[in-house]
Amino acid sequence: MDDRLFRTAMGKFATGVTVITTEFEGRPYGMTANAFVSVSLNPKLVLVSVGLHAHMHNRLQQTKRYAVNILAENQQALSALFAGQKKEETEVKFDTLDSLPVLQGTIATITCNVVAEHLAGDHTLFIGEVTEIRLNEGEPLLFSQGKYRELATLQENPTH
User: Pfam families given for it (predicted)?
Assistant: First the structure.
């Protein structure tokens, strides 16, 4: 099966956009990711999928901690920055939650301790037990078919 065909099919699934952050050797690091999922309510577990060759991969294996920053609809620039799409120097101001660097202005931030790692093809699935949550008002940044999207509310059709 062609890689492009697979990527195109996966792009048909609309996702939210997150930036995974951690602190390594005293410095904050981040990576844009849409491969994020809630796994369990009891215990509270979430999962992020990180490519084996991503810089974040080794950092997560060593720190065993990460934060999931769920981006707001006005944070496309942060998504592009942490995806490596912006080449100019940009200063990012971080807050701290549960001793982890987190982004300002997100609609939700979740901090985790890694409780399991599973190799899956060319990625590792990092399962994290949730330690803190911070919520803010706002709408999510969405991504589908290679483009950022906005959330719209559909009216219910009373005839169905």
Answer: Flavin_Reduct
